Amino acid sequence: MKQEKNNQNKKNKFSDILSELRENNRELTYKEIQSFSDLSEENLAQFRQTWNLLSNKRKEMFFELLLVEFMSNTLMDFSEIALIGLNDEDPIIRRGSLKLLMDNRKSYFLDRLISISKQDPDTEVRLDAISTLGYFLMDTDMAERGKNKAEKVLKTLESLMESPDKMTRLRVMEALAYVDHPSIIPLVYASLTSDIDTEIASGLRAVQNSLNRRWAANVIENLDHPNPDVQYEAIKAVGELQLKRARNRILSLLARFDQLDDDILDATILTASQLGGNQVKEMIEMIEEIFEDEEDMAELFEEAKSNLELVDFQKQMAGNPDLKDLFTEESDEESENVEEDYIQILRERIENLPECEESEDKFEEIEEENEEEEDEDESDYPNRHSHRHSSFSDIDWSHFRIIEDLRKESEDLEDEDFSDLDEFEEDED
Fold it and tell me: Is the pLDDT of residue 399 over 50?
């Protein structure tokens, strides 16, 4: 009897939340958003009816809240809602749905994903679908049970490589990089040596996905690129490849942290933590103290500390003769062994921060006034993080959530072997 009453209360509460979603403009609380996870068939049917009555703006607001909760809480499963969103006429909702399904490794979703990557009328949706195929490839390549899925994904991506659209080919290159597919080698080289910033950035993302150090020189030469998008990807690539020869360059950036924009700063902190070294830990701790009141950065610093612990562990294991071969590091000849006293440089900058902050505060006041005038109608959107993007659909959500769920679908197929293919020779002409 008590159980029946609890179920009825839950049912009524969910109906009330749907009413709020349908009839009011206020943003739902995160507790209310959590109620949309793992919906029962009855609640899902209610949601379908409500969904068709919502405006596009209300739908977008709702999906933004779902995505924020999904990225911060690994227990949330909004896949049923996402499957509904895949059929929505709004491409922003379809893109959001793909991100909510990024952990899904079911065959039915793979088939749907392949169809979207080829047929969706919106270019950005197709590109997002291709990226998600890359996540499939990244996971299935490492698991026996995923071999047949890997084969299906490879076949799809190889066919899309013939697309006349350059952005499609670049996105396919990034996806195939997860298995360091030999066909992408000339494409990565062409991208990294291009005069077009978007192509360079794409090439750097492919390098990150492949973890191949053959591109180390190309990565390092872009650390000071004037385009912040390119610089951001280059910094991240240094960390992913653990290019210790670039440590001084990264520490130099870290020492002038107050001059970096949010994304560059975040990437620099994480990359420094992936490289490790005598000065990194202390510098990160000093910067963390500066941002101790910034709640949105707490997770960033926790990740940095975890990276530092991992680097220390790798060093210990590399010193063990029996385990040395399991840990690949750059040789001493390639590494930068001489370091300036970046701690002192950082300390001096921190001492001068009050003057910088005063001038920056004035600038921020002017900026906030302009934003208030332009974005008065966007007050419904959440602001859990201070690092803002122009739209939730512009965020590369793959960097916020570790993908490791293979959903236990066991299918057998022989591995693809690319080891015998000839390596690409750089054309110096």
Answer: no
414-417 contacts, C-beta under 8 A, 24 or more apart: 414/147, 415/147, 416/150, 416/151, 416/154
297 alpha-carbon distance from chain centroid: 16
DSSP letters, 161-204, are TT-S-HHHHHHHHHHHGGGT-GGGHHHHHHHHT-S-HHHHHHHH
**Measured between alpha carbons, how far is 330 from 242 in angstroms, rounded to an integer?**
8
Whether 276 maps to a domain, the answer reads: yes
Question: Which of 409, 393, 401 shows the shortest CA–CA distance to 75?
Answer: 401
191 in a domain, yes or no?
no
Q: How confident is the model over 22-37, as pLDDT tens digits?
A: 988 889 999 999 999 9
Sign of CA dihedral 339, 343, 346, 352: negative
- Which secondary structure element, helix H or strand E, spans residue 205, and what is its range? helix 197-210
CB 145 within 8 A of CB 104: no
Last residue of a domain, one of 104, 120, 146: 104
Q: What are phi and psi of 319, to 5 degrees?
A: -80, -10
Contact 214, 203 (CB under 8 A): no
Amino acid identity, residue 374?
A: E
Whether 79 contacts 100, CB under 8 Å: yes
State which of 355, 371, 395 marks the end of a domain.
355
- 417 within domain boundaries: no
For the entire predicted model, the pTM comes to: 0.78
Cα torsion angle, 259, 264, 266, 272, sign: negative
Domain that holds residue 278: 242-355
Q: How far apart are CA 179 and CA 206, in angstroms?
A: 10
How many CB atoms within 10 Å of residue 113? 23
How many structural domains are present in the chain?
A: 2
